[in-house]
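Before going further, learn to read the protein records used in this course. The integers have meaning only within a learned vocabulary of local backbone shapes. The record below shows the convention in full.
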Amino acid sequence: MQLRSHSVPLKIWLVITGIVAGLFIIFNLAMPALTADPFIKTYIIQPFIWLGVIFIIWLLPRYTPIAGHRSRNRFVSFALMFGFCHVAFLLIGGLFSSFGQSPYSFKPASIIINLVYAGTMLAGMEISRAWLINQLARKRLLLALILVASLYTLLTIPFERVASITAEAGSIPFIGGTLLPAFTESLLTTQLALFAGPLAAICYRGMLEAFWWFSPVLPNLPWVFKAIIGVGVPIAGMVVGTGIYNNIANRHANRKKSREGFPAGWVFTSVFAVMAIWFSVGLFPFQPSVIASGSMQPTFNTGDIVMVAKMPAEKIDNGDIIVYRASETMDIVHRVVDIERNGSSLQFTTRGDAYKFNDPEPVLGENVIGKVMFSIPKIGWVAIKIKNLIYQ
């Protein structure tokens, strides 16, 4: 089944994409400079901006979602059901951790103000998202899904949270507990917008937004729970949604085209990408670490990637190369040259292979992340260059 929207010039969707990306700059950089009043900034300016986005989209050429208007109700029902399931999993997670009171006021006036703010933001985001994905996905579906999902992920994460993370350890809870769930939720929402237009996307995200804004108690989830629930549930939704679309496509009159159905490759690509990020931030027994200096030459060079097996300090032997946490923002890769036991705890004396002197401070056992198993030369240079660009 092919997209049936009218041909739209490249410059039009580039302008709209730029507008969406520009909203991130407006909300996070321009408005703080325009006014210091958080009420005006949040509850007056932002709703008017989203209403303006809705008006712009209304003026643009119409489109037909790829599943067709006749299948919209089916996807709307699915979106509501999966939004409810997502909320249910969050509540179940709260049973295993804890609950806390909502930070929002539940006075009638406050409820109305929050409803206007959340409602205009939700409508503006999903109407523009549906228009964008249905225009961009006609030729390069996977690229369009990733691009649109990434753009709208940026819009849901406050800039100060991104700017305040550290380059190493501090970013792990942020990536696992905030960025990954936001991105996979955005992927599922983008898929729904592609299949059935903005209404299905609004129904799914509306369930979640209503829960976070209007529930008197909210789960206090550790970041690992947020990662598991926030990533696992949307991925399951993408798989189920793809199956629904393929069933619809297989009933289409043009069997030759519909037999292919909706390409599931992008779902598996998304799953692979998410698993790769989980791996990189340490949710598995192994994790990579970049050699950022020459302190371990000639064993390792700057830009090498070392694979670290996470293990308790008791399993570290003299001569092993370990990764340990020197501070909240720095992990170090050095070799163990001596081990001492201080009561029930271990202390490790370490040294870089390029140095003649030991490190000045001993490494406590609780700060040991793991043991280096092997290295991959040079491929970490990309990460180093990106880090230098961001933090210079």
About this structure: The domain at 286-391 is CATH 2.10.109.10 (Umud Fragment, subunit A). Confidence is low (pLDDT under 50) at residues 1-7, 166-170, 253-261. The radius of gyration is 25 Å.
